[in-house]
Amino acid sequence: MFSLSVLASFFLFIPEMISAEEKVTIGTVEDVILLPWRVKLPARIDTGAAKSSLDARGLRVHEDRVEFKLPQKYGGTHLFLPIIDWRHVRTPEGLERRPIVELEICLGSRRFHTLVNLTDRSMVKYPLILGRNFLKENFVVDVKRRRTAKPDCSDTLDEENSEEHPRPIH
Amino acid sequence: MKMVSRQNPFQERPVGLSLDLMFLLMLTIFLFPLGKASAQDKLVVGEVEEIVLKPWDVRLPARIDTGAATSSLDARGLTVKNNTAEFRLSKKYGSLLLRLPVIGWQKVRSADFKERRPVVEITFCLGPKLIHTQVTLNDRSTVSYPLIIGRNVLRDNFVVDCVNSNCLPPSCPEVPSQ
User: Fold this and answer.
1) Which of A49, A153, B13, B54 lies at a C-alpha separation of 20 to 30 Å from B120?
2) Could you report the per-residue pLDDT of A24-54, keeping only the tens digit for each?
3) Angstrom distance (rounded) from CA B127 to CA B132
4) Domain holding A147: CATH number?
5) Given an 8 Å threshold on Cβ–Cβ distance, is A139 in contact with B68?
């Protein structure tokens, strides 16, 4: 009878645990890995930004594709990606048009497809800003923390060439 | 003697059951709040929250911004004389005229110019908490929220869950409900 009640209370706990752990708590800066290039970048977790953005140097648009480099500090990887959309951004200097591309990143042990707008952010400390479009469904932010999760998606890296595999895009 | 008492299952059982139930009840009562406390000793705020500026009782929507190191307030017609900042809240929020002592200056690196912004102390109510904090003042007429709550306020009190807005209405004891 005693063990029964222990069992019962254990089951009663489960809904509670799930609701608390649906969303992962992350800090104000998190390391992510850009896939498939496996470049590690620190990302600012920014609830003040509606959309995520990536520091793109030497940005050049070729019709429906965009060419740029990651900052030298992070290896200067040369990227050539399809433009998904354009975003108009109000800056102190006026209206700016920024290309939006889709990125795959690894944060903690999970992979995410997310849209980022590209902009030369050489003035800013972090090469990647993860904004509300990315955070919404998945994360709670506790700014007292930093680098809460080491990015490690090695478990899922084998299913690399699953292009047709539909995944949610935030 | 022990044997005899054990031989009396019909009398023992209800007692055992109720003890069991009590144990279960105690478990749920004591352990649930504990489990919650570890995850939620910080209050959950959304991407936008309404605050009440004290002592004027002005309600303002605030953007919760983990990307901002410090908080900042939209100050219109800002002038600083004798270490006192004078400014108004935007028309939308009643154009209240405020005069506050400047307690410091913050250097801001904007895209291509350097700026120095006065820092003042304000008190506001966010959820059940009365928060006394430093904010930088600048004319932010281009931005949609009059107050940005940055990491200096969030650090010790709140976690941010971006799916929701206004999940923690101001409820400080002395704030009139509306």
Assistant:
1) A49
2) 899 999 999 999 999 999 999 999 998 999 9
3) 14
4) 2.40.70.10
5) no
